[in-house]
Structures are given as structure tokens and as C-alpha cells.
Amino acid sequence: MIKAENVKKVFGTVTVLEDVNLTVNPGEVVTILGSSGSGKSTLIRCINGLEKLDGGRITVDEFDVAKPKELAEARKRSGTVFQLFNLYPHMTAVQNITLAPIEVLKRPRAEAEQEARDLLASVGLGDRADAFPSQLSGGQRQRVGICRALAMKPRYLLLDEVTSALDPEMTAEVLNILAKLAAEGTTMVFVTHEIEFARQISDRIVFLEKGKLVVDLPTERFFAEDGGLANPRVAQFLSKMR
Ligand code: ADP
Ligand code: MG
Fold it and tell me: What positions does the domain ABC transporter occupy (predicted)?
């Protein structure tokens, strides 16, 4: 379970997250919506321990990300996929995927490689295992990125706008994989602008506005009521997205 309590994050004089409370339960898919600059990526980075909190607390399976000794345990539990281009360019798909399992989990190389090839096959990239990132399309690279996160056998996947740099066809390739993972019960925290997709796969939608988490509702209610009680900000956001 991911639990954020009264989270605050400040950059310089700007408060980017304020009093954010969020719980993600095992098996849940939670989508974070919000305008550009509302703090979505910062929240994901805080959950992953990439940003120091200025207030509040985040635990992942009871491990406090602010405590150096517990952060490693927390990190092991969440696999993160970012927007694009975070594969190592000098490594093949398999090498990118096996790096952390070999280095961090101390998995035997042959075993890790077999698993990487199986993962790649499961996302339709069985024949691209030995390609370098520059030889892959954006959609293929993102699928490798997802495999790399899955190779660490995380309890949670954190996905930050993983399709926003992709054209519609490649976006569909990646969303199909995510839909499959969701159907298998993978716990996911998902930042996306793909509203219709979010509607299909999410159990809950939360809405960030200027660093505050102003809505947290089951998906059906979020859409039926424009964020609950016809929240004008959510209505405006959704009308721009559609
Ligand atoms: P979103 O992902 O919702 O678009 P971000 O979390 O990236 O929003 O950013 C929220 C706010 O924090 C923005 O105003 C952004 O400019 C600011 N911000 C993000 N990262 C930094 C940083 N490292 N230093 C200073 N300001 C930052
Ligand atoms: Mg962002």
C-alpha cells in the first residue's frame, strides 16, 4: 500500500504540493489528473523518494521514503516508467532490462536474461531483444521501459505520462500493454492525459490543482459528476481534454 499523508513540497519560494493525502491499495489502478504544472510528476517523484519532502510522510508498504534505510526497501517495491528516453543508449533492450535485477537483486545473469526475453515477448518485442534504443521506435522504447520496471517485480507501477511523446498508433501499443497489466491486477499509479483510457482502466481518479489534491473519487462518479458536485475546475479540465 502506498500512503501519502499531508505531503508538502516546496521549490524555492513556490509550494508545489500542499497537504496531499493519497492512499493506493493493492490491486488498485489510480489515475492522477491535473493541468500541466499542477504537481503530478512531483508527487510521483516524491513517492519514489526522488524528492525530499518538506512536510508530511509517504510510506510504501510501511517503509518511510524519507528514511534512507527504508528508502531502498520502498524503491524495490515500486517500478517507475517516465515519459521517454530514459533507457541507456549504449545498452540493448535486454541489457537495459537486466541491469538492475543483476546489480541490485543479484540475480544470475542467464536467468535475468531469460526473464527479460520473456517479458519482451509478452509485450510483442520478442524479436527486438538485442536492439539498441536508437534502433527502436518510441512506442517500442516505452514497452522496453515497462519491461525494465517489471523485471524488478515491483508491487506497484508508477507511470508518468508514458505515452505523451508518442503518436496515436504507438500510444495504442503501450496502452494495450498497460490495460493487460491492469487486468492482471497490477497496482498502478498513472499520470496521463489519455482521459478515455483512464476511464476504462482506473478504479479511482484523483485531481490535482495547484499542488492540492482536490478530488479523490471512484472513476464512475468522477466522470458522472465532473469530479463530484460538478466541480467547475474539473469540468473545465475535462472539456479541454475531450
Ligand atoms: P506536472 O507534472 O503536473 O505538469 P510538475 O510536478 O512537473 O507538474 O511541476 C509542478 C510545479 O513545480 C511546476 O510549477 C514546476 O515548474 C515546478 N517544479 C518542478 N520541478 C522543479 C524543480 N526541480 N525545481 C523548481 N521547480 C520545479
Ligand atoms: Mg509532469
Answer: 2-235
What is the number of the ligand 1 atom nearest to the C-alpha of 34? 3
Residue 97's Cβ-count burial label (10 Å; 0-12, 13-18, 19+) is: buried
C-alpha cell at position 44: 510521483
C-alpha of residue 39 to centroid of ligand 1, in Å: 6
- Which ligand has the nearest atom to the CA of 32? 1
Please work out whether the CB of residue 31 comes within 6 Å of at least one atom of ligand 1: no
192: β partners:
none
In the three-class reduction of DSSP (H, G, I as helix; E, B as strand; rest coil), residue 205 is classed as strand
Tell how far the Cα of 11 is from the centroid of ligand 1, in angstroms.
8
* Total number of residues shown for the chain: 242
Structural element, H or E, at residue 147: helix 138-150
- Answer whether 142 contacts ligand 1 (Cβ < 6 A): no
- Tell me what the mean pLDDT of segment 188-213 comes to: 94
CB 22 within 8 A of CB 204: no
56-60, 138-142, 225-229: lowest mean pLDDT where? Answer: 225-229
Closest CA to 120 of 131, 105, 110, 109: 131
* Residue 148 to residue 153: CA distance in whole angstroms: 10
Please tell me the pTM assigned to this model: 0.91
Taking the C-alpha atoms of residue 14 and residue 148, their distance in angstroms, rounded to an integer, is 34
Q: Whose CA is nearest to atom 22 of ligand 1?
A: 11
- ipTM above 0.90? yes
